[in-house]
Specification:
The complex is a heterotrimer of chains A (about 200), B (about 700) and C (about 110).
Chain A: H1 14-47, H2 50-53, H3 59-62, H4 65-90, H5 95-125, H6 134-167, H7 171-204
Chain B: H1 20-26, H2 30-55, H3 59-67, H4 72-102, H5 112-146, H6 155-174, H7 202-230, H8 243-275, H9 288-320, H10 329-342, H11 358-370, H12 372-386, H13 395-417, H14 420-426, H15 430-460, H16 466-493, H17 507-537, H18 579-585, E1 599-602, H19 607-623, H20 627-645, E2 651-654, H21 656-672, H22 695-698
Antiparallel strand pairs in B: 1-2
Helix pairs in contact in B: 1-2, 4-5, 4-6, 4-17, 5-6, 5-7, 5-9, 5-15, 6-7, 6-19, 7-8, 7-19, 8-9, 8-10, 9-12, 9-15, 10-12, 13-15, 13-16, 15-16, 16-17, 19-20
Chain C: H1 10-38, H2 44-66, H3 76-105
The chains are: A mainly alpha (about 200), B mainly alpha (about 700), C mainly alpha (about 110).
């Protein structure tokens, strides 16, 4: 294997050779993104106490576990469906099948965002806004940052669907999809941290 | 959202009073007039540059050969140009502050606010817009050549990095004309830089210039790391790489992992200022101490980011000007790796006095002292390299000598500061200011200037004037010493840093010594300028087109000066460490390759410039609350990026015949030329071809 | 190759199974923590430990089954990069929590 994520295999020729460099580079970028999230997590943890909450709404008052559970299931499933898309690329199942898996992943990603937007709206309705306390600032710094990444991922999927239609499965399109795959799985990894530390940890306190 | 004031939707909070020149007309104090003068220099400088380029009819060349180039060599030179221009401003600001403090007993001529803006821009410029770009420039130019590659792994991303760095510098320069830069120091601690105490443009200018440039640096780090891992010439294992490339790799690691904390800290501060968040506010659960923690999580590794490449440059120049291979290659590599990792474990020493318990301080104090050990290993290795070598006292070696004495002293004061008990006494005094200038100037600046002198002939085909180089180096050494050793004294006498004035008359004579030093520094800067002008004027006499003026050992010297666009006609196979040195010693150098192949190179692209322009507009829009422009600029960057990905024709082919012709012509000139001994190294006879003087020292060990 | 040839490809189904196993493990490692918290099955500290462990395990599952990073010889470089990044992240995040916690205790 030459790089993280699914490897295309030598029968993909140029794409397989090119992938080594570009996927490694993207992986390195994800490591820097990991540090950003890690520090947002650390800040969140340091604010999860009475001083940080400053008498304002805390996790128990504003978190909707059912919604979080739904978001977790949706994102995990989307990782599986992207995996299926990756396999379709590797086994050269043709642009239609690949596109279908991408559409499904996109739909799941957008649904995730809808659930998350509803969560944030209801929090705002309860007065749980970032300007209320340091704790809520830390929450709204971390979780929407992840949401923004998911939005970027959805935009990327849309662009890739267009590029598959415009160019077919040329090596450049394949290596871009490999990188998108890495990104998408990375987002689910970060979400594991979020639902564990922020939501479950917050409610369990 | 940001304040109760109603701003004009089109102009945001930009109005006539934002112009420093208008402010000076309204209120012509000395401070205001100096500020207006600086603004005039920026405006006239910009007009002058445009006029000069127009008069030389160079717009087309500038665009096609430089601004849209993806060639690492061009990008490297542009980085260095940016750095040198910003260095002029940084030095002048330093001299201005020295002057103010010399007269500070009687109040001086600058308001405390203006002084605060000066020390803020001085620090911000020197770190982010002089040191980092200069380093990025030299790495960009040299590293691919040393590893036997044709370019960086990601040439377009390289160009974007340059653009984003230029954006940051542009914002700092524009701040002289429009609005006002921060007065909160280069570290910008809240709550002073929060919106309650500083609702104006200052901290916003700082945030956006530093954050945008920081993204550029992160991308560069990724580029450097991937290039070193994936683009090395066949046969070049990691342990056959030149030591400079090892330091680049470790620097890249720092760039990748240490810039994110800065992004986090600045964006959290921005959220506090723009969106009423409470990360660092006094009230409602904010914790400003976390800012200090996050900033220095970035800030400490950052200074190692600055010094590791210069350690690498000294490794190269000391070995070359001793005519010997570097002593202790393996220990140098491991020491570099150790410094790189350890640099992430010591950040708390910047805030020993913030209030955490002694146990916490002790842990970080011990870690800080440990970093001195690998550095010491490196110093011993460099000194051992000089032993029994064919040493010459050229300009880079003068800088190296200054480095040996002065940097070690600075490092020792660092070990003193690593002790929390001592730190409590001298924290935020001039002792600290003296320490960090003592490591930055002899460590970073001297390394950069010797690298500039060493690799200039490779980039431009002619050497820099040696005499003016000597003058500059000596003036830098004396200037630094006279300016900063008095500050150690003043620190012990109790003078706090960042003070525009003071009341203890005992400080005054010491201040005047420091002012004398500052004039020497100004003279050093002037000598550098004169050196460049004289060198360009005398370039025929200083020409070294054959490529190897210093009898170098690494691959960059095995090609003409300046190198062709594609670097190597045929990628070399690397057998040994110091491959070119060994090739010369064993008669393998300057051989005709068996066959030539077409070379595929990336096309020019305006992406870097578009991103730079858009990012500058974005920064200004955010600073002045011009929201429509901010949205437009951000969207245009995204659209540009996506549009670019639909472009499939991004490379062109250089035919083998053209490469063969150029290469054969160069080899013919090499055969026809007279090689020189090291005695003639700085004389006009040096065409860039070396006599084999000490094959025992040049060949790889068996 | 026709669009439907993959159905006969034994390799393909082996790889699909690989992803499904990963999905199954991740699902289990998600359901357990949610159950523990929702039905308050444990006291605070033990609950936190268990859900923390489940999270770490699930991350490993993702890395192994979705990102194909394991201990075999060829993949060492990428594993080394992750471990190095995690080391630095741990120093930074745990250091932050230690320092800020210590400061909070003294205020």
């Amino acid at each position: 294997m030459k790089h993280p994520g699914i490897n295309l295999g030598p029968h993909h020729g140029t794409a397989h050779d090119q992938a080594e460099k570009v996927v490694f580079g993207f992986w390195v970028f994800l490591m820097s993104d990991l540090i950003i999230f890690g520090l947002m997590f650390a800040t969140y943890v340091t604010m999860t106490n009475p001083v940080g909450m400053a008498g304002g709404p805390g996790p128990k008052h504003v978190f909707d576990l059912a919604s979080v559970f739904a978001q977790t299931m949706i994102l995990l499933t989307s990782s599986l469906t992207f995996g299926m898309a990756s396999l379709a690329i590797r086994h050269e199942q043709g642009r239609n099948i690949i596109s279908i898996w991408l559409y499904v992943t996109l739909a799941l990603g957008l649904t995730f965002l809808v659930f998350e937007a509803r969560d944030f709206t209801s929090m705002v309705g309860l007065g749980a806004v970032p300007s209320r306390s340091g704790y809520l600032s830390a929450f709204f710094g971390l979780v929407p940052l992840h949401g923004l990444h998911v939005m970027a991922g959805c935009l990327w999927i849309m662009v890739m669907i267009l590029q598959i239609r415009a160019f077919g499965m040329i090596p450049l399109v394949k290596t871009r999809l490999l990188r998108l795959g890495l990104f998408w799985h990375f987002l689910d990894l970060v979400w594991i941290g979020i639902f564990t530390i922020v939501y479950l940890g917050g409610i369990g306190t | 959202m940001t304040s109760d004031q109603n701003y004009n939707w089109f102009f945001g909070r930009l109005d006539l009073s934002s112009l420093s020149i208008w402010q000076a007309i309204q209120n012509p104090t000395t401070s205001e007039l100096i500020a207006a003068g600086a603004a005039m220099i920026v405006i006239l400088g910009a007009i002058g540059a445009i006029a000069l380029i127009t008069w030389l009819r160079a717009w087309r060349t500038l665009w096609t050969e430089w601004l849209t180039s993806t060639d690492h060599k061009r990008i490297g030179i542009m980085y260095c140009v940016l750095a040198l221009v910003m260095m002029a401003r940084g030095v002048i600001e330093g001299v201005l502050m020295r002057t103010q403090q010399a007269f500070g007993l009687h109040g001086g001529f600058l308001t405390p606010d203006h002084f605060a803006e000066l020390f803020t821009t001085h620090g911000t410029i020197m770190i982010f817009f002089v040191a980092v770009p200069f380093i990025a420039g030299i790495i960009n130019y040299v590293m691919p050549l040393q590893i036997g590659a044709r370019d960086m792994s990601f040439p377009v991303m390289n160009q974007v990095s340059l653009g984003l760095t230029a954006t940051g510098a542009a914002l700092v320069m524009i701040s002289l004309v429009l609005g006002q830069f921060s007065t909160g120091s280069w570290a910008a601690y809240p709550p002073y830089t929060g919106k309650v105490f500083n609702p104006g443009t200052g901290p916003d200018y700082w945030i956006w210039s530093v954050a945008i440039a920081g993204i550029g640096t992160t991308l560069s780090g990724i580029n450097f790391a991937v290039t070193i891992f994936k683009e090395r010439a066949p046969g070049m294992s990691l342990f056959k790489m030149p030591v400079f490339c090892w330091t680049v790799l470790c620097t890249a690691v720092i760039m990748i992992f240490a810039m994110p904390p800065l992004t986090v800290a600045t964006m959290m501060l921005a959220a506090d200022r723009y969106l009423d968040f409470h990360f660092f506010t006094n009230d409602l659960g904010g914790n400003m101490m976390n800012y200090v923690n996050l900033f220095w999580l970035f800030g400490h590794p950052e200074v190692y980011l600055l010094v590791l490449p210069t350690y690498g440059i000294f490794s190269e120049t000391i070995a070359t000007f001793s005519g010997k291979r570097l002593y202790g290659y393996t220990s140098l590599v491991y020491a570099t790796m150790a410094i790189s990792v350890l640099s992430f474990t010591v950040w708390l020493h910047h805030f020993f006095t913030m209030g955490q318990s002694a146990n916490v301080n002790i842990a970080f104090g011990i870690a800080s002292m440990c970093i001195a050990i690998p550095t010491g290993v490196k110093v011993y290795n460099w000194v051992a390299t000089l032993f029994r070598g064919r040493t010459r006292l050229t300009v880079p070696m003068i800088y190296a000598t200054g480095f040996f004495y002065l940097f070690v002293i600075g490092g020792l004061t660092g070990v003193m500061l690593a002790n929390p008990t001592i730190s409590y006494q001298v924290h935020n005094t001039l002792f600290l200011v003296a320490h960090f200038h003592n490591v930055l100037i002899p460590g970073v600046l001297f390394g950069l200037l010797s690298g500039y002198h060493y690799w200039f002939p490779k980039a431009f085909g002619f050497r820099l004037h040696e005499g003016w180089g000597w003058a500059s180096a000596v003036l830098w050494i004396l200037g630094f010493s006279f300016t900063f050793f008095p500050l150690y004294v003043l620190g012990f006498m109790g003078m706090p840093r960042r003070s525009a004035n003071y009341s203890d008359p005992a400080f005054e004579p010491v201040m005047f010594v420091a002012l004398f030093g500052a004039t020497l520094v100004l003279a050093a800067l002037a000598s550098l300028c004169v050196q460049l002008v004289v060198s360009i004027r005398d370039r025929k006499r200083l020409a070294v087109p054959l490529g190897d003026p210093w009898n170098g050992r690494t691959l960059e010297w095995a090609m003409p000066s300046p190198p062709p666009h594609y670097n190597f006609a045929v990628l070399p196979y690397v057998h040994e460490r110091d491959e070119f040195g060994d090739a010369k010693a064993t008669g393998r150098a300057y051989c005709e390759p068996e066959e030539y192949e077409d070379i595929e190179l990336p096309n020019n692209t305006p992406i870097g410039m578009i991103i730079c322009a858009a990012a500058t507009l974005l920064g200004l829009a955010l600073i002045f609350y011009i929201w429509w422009l901010a949205v437009l600029a951000a969207v245009s960057m995204i659209v540009t990026f996506i549009a670019r990905t639909f472009d499939l024709e991004t490379t062109h082919l250089i035919p083998a015949s053209e490469i063969a012709a150029e290469h054969k012509a160069w080899l013919a000139r090499v055969r026809a030329a007279s090689p020189i001994t090291r005695d003639a190294e700085t004389k006009p006879e040096n065409e860039g071809l070396a006599v084999l003087e000490r094959p025992d020292l040049m060949a790889a060990p068996k | 190759m026709s669009d439907l040839d993959y159905l006969d490809d034994r390799n393909y189904w082996r790889e699909v199974r690989h992803y499904l196993i990963g999905f199954g493990l991740a699902l289990a490692l998600t359901l357990i923590p949610f159950a523990i918290i929702y039905w308050k099955m444990l006291a605070f500290k033990p609950a936190l430990t268990v859900i923390g462990l489940c999270a770490l395990l699930q991350m490993v599952v993702h890395l192994r089954f979705f990102l194909h990073i394991d201990l075999s010889r060829q993949k060492r470089e990428d594993l080394q990069l992750i471990l190095f990044s995690v080391l630095l992240l741990a120093i930074m995040a745990l250091g932050t929590i230690w320092i800020i916690g210590n400061l909070g205790m003294r205020m």
